[in-house]
Amino acid sequence: MNELEHPTGDPYGAKDGKDLISGIAVFPMEPHVPRKADIDPKAAIRAERQVATMFGLSSLMIILFVVAYIKVPSDLLISIPVIGTLNANHLAIGFTFGMAILLIGLGAIHWAKKLMPDEEVIQERHALTSTNEERAAVQSSLQRGAAESGFKERKIIRRSLLGALALFPVPLVVLLRDLGPLPGTRLRETIWDKGIHLVTDATYKKIKASDIPLGGLINAVPENLMEIEHEEENLNQRGKASIIIVRMDPADIVSQQGETWDYQGILAFSKICTHLGCPTSLYQQRTHHLLCPCHQSTFDLSDSGNVVFGPAARRMPQLAITVDAEGYLVAQSGFNEPVGPSFWERG
Q1: Which among 49, 95, 176, 183 is least buried, having the fewest CB atoms inside 10 angstroms?
Q2: Residue 81 domain flag
Q3: Contact by Cβ (8 Å): 71, 96
Q4: For 156-182, how does the pLDDT look when each residue is reduced to its tens digit (9 = 90+)?
């Protein structure tokens, strides 16, 4: 008699509800009851068709998702009792994509519950390091499981599942369109131009060269930003045209991006990091290094804004400046190179 067997026939070797070896309370295993699909070939075929139907409907939902995304206007609103007013495009693509996911899940569950083996088995604990024999046994078990699942034999299920899974990534690709248009030339052009005054950010006050102390830093924007009344456009232009102004000893300037782009040691650089577009203003006076707080890209402002550390691949664009007749800082021209983060369209 096996050490876990019991004269009563309890497969767990339980006596009075306790295991004979450990003394821990156990519950007897219920006798296995075959499912209808296990004993009736017609029921098995019916279950197989039900699973395939779910997978097929999932594929259909993916197709309807693409159709709804293209055809249903993004600004169309519909009113639903109790729920309220909803965006028809969002409702359509959300419903179709959600149903596609749900149908794949339901099909897989129905397949497992109706067609795959459901007999309970007991596997004893083993050492964490498997022997070659055990690995071979696992491989054999996986192969047996694949065979028992009927994945090879039940062609209609296999084909419909593969079709549903093949179409499943389509919505993820289609939704990339909602990320917006490609940058194109948008980051190559700003509202900076010759003669535009540098003004302080938020207060829009003109900046005199004499007001900037050695080692000082000022966040600035172009004066013509105030002329843009449309809020969204104003924010877009601010995001591209924002700059920082620093003053250092002219003797500390190693190089510039242009011959006379500073004014008495005052330099202006884009505020937008060339890595991922984070705003920068952490300036170390002693080293003249500008640090991006997001990913620690570091730029040497005394040496043309070149990258000295971090993931940024491009130097910080410099804005050529001078002063007008009253001593206020003005731009000599716009940026000579694109501002903001790098992307695949840039050479």
Answers
A1: 176
A2: yes
A3: no
A4: 988 999 999 999 889 888 888 777 666
Q: Contacts by 69-74 with C-beta closer than 8 Å and gap 24+?
A: 69/93, 69/171, 69/174
In a domain? residue 7: no
Q: Is the pTM of this model over 0.85?
A: no
How far, in whole angstroms, is CA 341 from its chain's centroid? Answer: 17
Report the share of the chain in percent with pLDDT over 70. 86
| Burial of 343 per CB tally in 10 Å (0-12, 13-18, 19+) | exposed
Question: Residue 309 — pLDDT band, cuts 50, 70, 90?
Answer: very high
- For residue 308, give both structure tokens: 């000295």
| Domain finish residue from 149, 179, 209 | 179
**DSSP secondary structure code for residue 272 in this structure:** B
Total domains in the chain come to 2
3-state secondary structure at position 15: strand
Residue 286 lies in a domain: yes
Which residue type occupies 106? Answer: L
In tens, the pLDDT along 15-49 reads 455 554 455 555 566 777 888 888 899 999 999 99
155 and 260 co-located in one domain: no
Q: Please give the distance of CA 270 from its chain centroid, rounded to a whole number.
A: 27
In a domain, 185, yes or no: no
pLDDT the model gives residue 6: 44
DSSP 8-state assignment for residue 201: T
* Nearest alpha-carbon partner for 223 in 240, 237, 205: 205
**In which domain, by residue range, is 327 found?**
198-331
Summarize pLDDT for 200-242 with one digit per residue, the tens. 988 899 999 998 999 989 999 999 998 888 888 888 889 889 9
Compute the distance between CA of residue 189 and CA of residue 277 in angstroms, rounded to an integer: 15
Q: Are residues 82 and 172 in the same domain?
A: yes
Q: How many CB atoms lie within 10 A of CB 330?
A: 20
**Contact yes or no for 300/306 (Cβ under 8 A):** yes
CATH number of the domain residue 230 falls in? 2.102.10.10
Q: How far apart are CA 195 and CA 334, in angstroms?
A: 10
- The domain boundary residue, chosen from 144, 179, 214: 179
